[in-house]
Amino acid sequence: MMSEQAFFTLENRDNILDLTMNAPGNNIMTADFMTAFVDIVKELHKTAAENSNIKGLIIHGSGRHFSVGADVTSLMDRSVAELAEMERTGNLPEGFIVQKDCVTSFSKLNFPVVSVVNGFCIGSGSEIAANTHFRICEPATRAGQPESTFGILPALGGITRSAALCGLAEAINIVMSGELFTAEHAGKIGWADILCEKKQGYSKAVSLIEYINSTGTFDPSKRAEYISGFLASEVA
Amino acid sequence: MNITKKNNYLHITDIDDLAGAVSECYKEYDNGFCAAVFETGDKAVSSEAKKLLAEAPFITAVYSEKLSASAEDLLAYDLRFSSEVYKAGKETAEKLMSNEKFKILFSDKRAYELKKFTESGEASETELDYFSVTEESFDEYFERIFKDKTPYQIMILTECLTSLRTGDAEIGFEKESENFYKLAKVITKEITKE
């Protein structure tokens, strides 16, 4: 075990990093969760910088769900304090910037980052997954950005990444409607890269990372090519 | 030209001059209309109209029973509504797959799928079921996505979405952050009143 924070473990398994979310309430993203998240992501980047042999990173929930997203009550409490800070400084709150930088940092790593999604993967939880290079969805996946139904919007990259993964036309639907979608629909709209059977997501993620590494230096712009090649290699 | 005002969106028919029609919709944006559906038939989209559509503060859409306008013209809109699924032959597919607007509207993944289609010796035509909305009318679509949202919220979300027309992720990230707090201000004021 490399590192264990309150709600996370980070392990190195033959140079594939495993970031497990293990918070109560199906990884509900409370203020404490986000504090631990920032710490573990800093740890992750330090590890990545110190070890050039890292082949990839897998992010997943330890239980039945990836994450049910932000605790809306504590989010609104935090927002009251942050709005006061914004009034004083005229800038976005520092705490928010740090959290957003952490969530959006996954797609900037120079090795493949794969989210293994099962159960609920919604709101800020969905934003974590959307900010990784690849998403492998198990059958019970229910993902989406329902923030608009609460009167707010996805601020941790959910709008931008929905557009990057599914196209702007589909992002309009995802973000404005706030509707959740199944694994099958995620595959249809391009949010999910691979669909798999129950409890097969993790091993599939390992195989995908190994495949990508076998093709040479990781190039995120070749995302579609990697998935196509990997799926073809599985059939062969 | 005929503009019908609906809940938060406009439906424009009998269009002689598309650029003129889009300009009229710019004025209506100040009255809280965050989307506009243009029924243009298969008329070409002028450069002036393309520029106005690209910079429109509202979501832009085209409706035609069968999308017979050129692919490039159809990509000038954020959304397309039609009764039939759009089909592309190899020549159209080749144009689409290397079109930056196509990638922004539908993703790099779809562009790669088209590339594979053009390289395959199989069918001469492929169906792009994602190219337009066919399962519901534009009335049903906008009623569904705007449901239970205030005009202000729709406008704030629309700003975020339209900021992504250039495909610049940094602009998108910035707009999300800024606009989250605009909505948070409203919500927290409402909570404080309760």
Short description:
The complex is a heterodimer of chains A (236) and B (194). Chain A is an alpha/beta fold and 236 residues long. Helix content of chain A is 48%, strand content 18%.
Characterize the structure shown.
The complex is a heterodimer of chains A (236) and B (194). Chain A has 236 residues and is an alpha/beta fold. Chain A has a single domain (3-235), classed as 2-enoyl-CoA Hydratase, Chain A, domain 1, CATH 3.90.226.10. Helices cover 48% and strands 18% of the residues of chain A. In chain A, the strands form three sheets. Chain A has a seven-stranded mixed sheet with strand order 1-2-3-5-7-9-12, with helices on both faces. In chain A, a hairpin with a 3-residue loop joins strand 1 and strand 2 (8-13). Chain A is globular and about 60 Å long. The N and C termini of chain A lie far apart (36 Å). The model of chain A has no long low-confidence stretch (mean pLDDT 95). With 194 residues, chain B is of the alpha/beta class. Chain B has three domains: 1-84 and 133-147, Transcription Regulator spoIIAA (2-Layer Sandwich); 86-131, no CATH class; 148-194. Chain B is 51% helix and 15% strand. Chain B contains nine helices and seven strands; from the N terminus they run E-E-H-E-H-E-H-E-E-H-H-H-E-H-H-H. Chain B has helices spanning 18-29, 47-55, 71-74, 90-97, 100-106, 108-119, 138-146, 151-162, 169-193; strands at 2-5, 9-13, 35-38, 59-63, 79-81, 86-89, 125-128. In chain B, the strands form two sheets. Chain B has a five-stranded mixed sheet with strand order 1-2-3-4-5. A two-stranded antiparallel sheet of chain B has the order 6-7. In chain B, strand 4 (59-63), helix 3 and strand 5 form a beta-alpha-beta unit. The longest helix of chain B has 25 residues, at 169-193. The model of chain B has no long low-confidence stretch (mean pLDDT 93). Classes of the chains: A alpha/beta (236), B alpha/beta (194). The interface between A and B is large, with 46 and 50 residues.
